[in-house]
TrEMBL record:
Self-association state and partner proteins as the record states: Homodimer.
SUPFAM superfamilies per UniProt: Pentein
Name this polypeptide is given: N-succinylarginine dihydrolase
InterPro entries the UniProt entry points to: AstB_sf (IPR037031), SuccinylArg_d-Hdrlase_AstB (IPR007079)
Family: Belongs to the succinylarginine dihydrolase family.
Keywords assigned: Arginine metabolism, Hydrolase
Xref: PANTHER family: N-SUCCINYLARGININE DIHYDROLASE
NCBIfam families: arg_catab_astB, PRK13281.1
Length: 447
């Protein structure tokens, strides 16, 4: 087994972070529509999480935000003239499309891509596929920059491959790592890749939600497994419980999280709980690991409370000195069921023996918790040395990014501000400087 570490690539929140209610099926996004956001605070909250986890010895990196507004999208939809004209016309005729073009949603990097580490793939390289996110207009073009960014960071083709995204059509709805978990006895050991889907496009009799959309299809998950060269004996596909999608569980990472040999999940997470656990146990036996299932019952934490607190949208991290820490948002402490449950969990003798809590309220109000904000990339020491080094979170990088945020970000954005041409100029200026700070010239196609 090779020595490997799990890097968490957190999304740096972009300067246009706002609440536009764009995600039907995501309760928080809907409830906070049109309230005022604070992009500066959002970015600083995310950076504080990265800094503390890096200081604790976890491998931590940053994924840069994307250029906003998305003028390419606006012009493709017929808004024309100068940039200022485009913004004014879009605001007048379709403020919701303008909000889509301005969304800072790439901050949720769990949706940026699916990643398979080299110990799982047939060719021994790390494989990435950017998610097409085709279920929502405001996210459907993220894959263009995500692919470009991943290719800039993981440019060494002897070690890394960044595939083209899947076709952007409902049959291949793909939301990336939010519906993908990897189990292994250690980050560098052969692992089991676990894909959870919400519907089967070509089998209308398969379970699917009635009220809210299922964003991930089985067909998409299978295509990723093929592209990444995964071994079928070490790959498990499971259907999400459609009833919980209809209660606001729009990604599996809102109701389950895994790490090492541990699956922390709600009893209602899967359409077939026993069958899913059984398939995982069998696959894990093939890599000499025993599944440790930490099940949360409905009478301990009702689904509505899991969704409101984001208990399962936590990061489960293997600590350098053994044991696992659960990284949760403050909202978990504020929910009576969840807070009580967490106390019993830590005292209960499972592998999870510590809680780390963060204030991520700005992101949480759009339905993005600690796990949404990060993309996991397990890398051997050689692979880590071969990736772009300028995005690794250090005290030095943190000390550059905080003043950068303070220089460029507003502390108040409400819907009417999206019509202000000055905001677009501020966003472009910020990213031009960020390219230099991260040592990534040409990262963006800035005009
Ligand atoms: N669970 C994971 N991994 N990611 C959370 C993504 C939240 C995101 N919210 C938004 O896109 C809201 C944007 C707005 O309404 O302004 C989404 O629904 O896709």
């Amino acid at each position: 087994m090779r020595n490997a570490r799990e890097f968490n690539f957190d999304g740096l929140v972009g300067p246009s972070h706002n609440y536009a209610g764009l995600s039907f099926g995501n309760v928080a996004s809907f409830n906070n529509v049109k309230s005022a956001s604070n992009p500066r605070q959002a970015a600083l909250q995310g950076l504080a999480k990265m800094r503390e986890l890096a200081a604790r010895g976890f491998a931590q990196a940053v994924l840069p935000p994307q250029a906003r507004p998305n003028f390419r999208l606006l012009r493709r939809l017929g808004f024309s003239g100068t940039d200022a004209d485009v913004l004014a016309q879009a605001y007048r005729e379709s403020p919701v499309i303008l909000a889509c073009a301005y969304s800072a949603s790439p901050m949720w990097t769990a949706n940026a891509a699916t990643v398979s580490p080299s110990s799982d793939t047939a060719d021994g390289r790390v494989h990435f596929t950017a998610a097409n996110l085709n279920n929502k207009l405001h996210r459907a073009e993220e894959h263009i920059q995500s692919t470009r960014t991943l290719r800039a960071l993981f440019a060494n083709s002897d070690r890394f491959v960044v595939h083209e995204p899947l076709p952007s059509t409902p049959a291949f709805g793909d939301e990336g790592a939010a519906n993908h978990t990897r189990f292994a006895s250690a980050h560098g050991a052969a692992g089991v890749e676990f894909f959870v889907y919400g519907k089967v496009e070509f089998d209308p009799s398969a379970p699917s939600p009635k009220k809210y959309p299922a964003r991930q299809t089985l067909e998409a998950s299978q295509a990723i497994a093929r592209l990444h060269g995964l071994d079928s004996a070490r790959t498990v596909f499971a259907s999400q419980n459609p009833d919980v999608i209809d209660q606001g569980v729009f990604h599996n990472d809102v109701i389950a999280v895994g790490n090492g040999n541990v699956l922390f999940y709600h009893e209602q997470a899967f359409a077939n709980e026993a069958g899913t656990l059984d398939a995982l146990r069998r696959a894990l036996a093939g890599v000499d690991a025993d599944l440790q299932a930490v099940r949360v019952d409905t009478n301990m934490v009702p689904v509505a409370d899991a969704v409101a607190s984001y208990l399962f949208n936590s990061q489960l991290l293997s600590k350098p000195d053994g044991g696992m820490a659960l990284v949760v948002p403050h909202e978990c402490r504020e929910n009576a069921f969840v807070s009580r449950y967490l106390e019993s969990l830590i005292a209960g003798g499972s592998a999870i023996d510590e809680l780390i809590e963060f204030d991520l309220r700005q992101s949480m109000r759009n339905g993005g918790g600690p796990a949404c904000l990060r993309l996991r990339v397990a890398l051997t020491d050689d692979e880590a040395a071969a990736m772009h080094q300028g995005v690794i979170m250090t005290e030095d990088l943190y000390a550059k990014l905080v003043p950068w945020v303070e220089r460029h970000y507003r502390d108040h954005v409400e819907p009417k501000d999206l019509a202000d041409p000055q905001l677009a100029i501020e966003c472009a200026t910020a990213l031009e400087e960020l390219e230099r700070l991260l040592g990534l010239p040409g990262l963006y196609e800035l005009n």
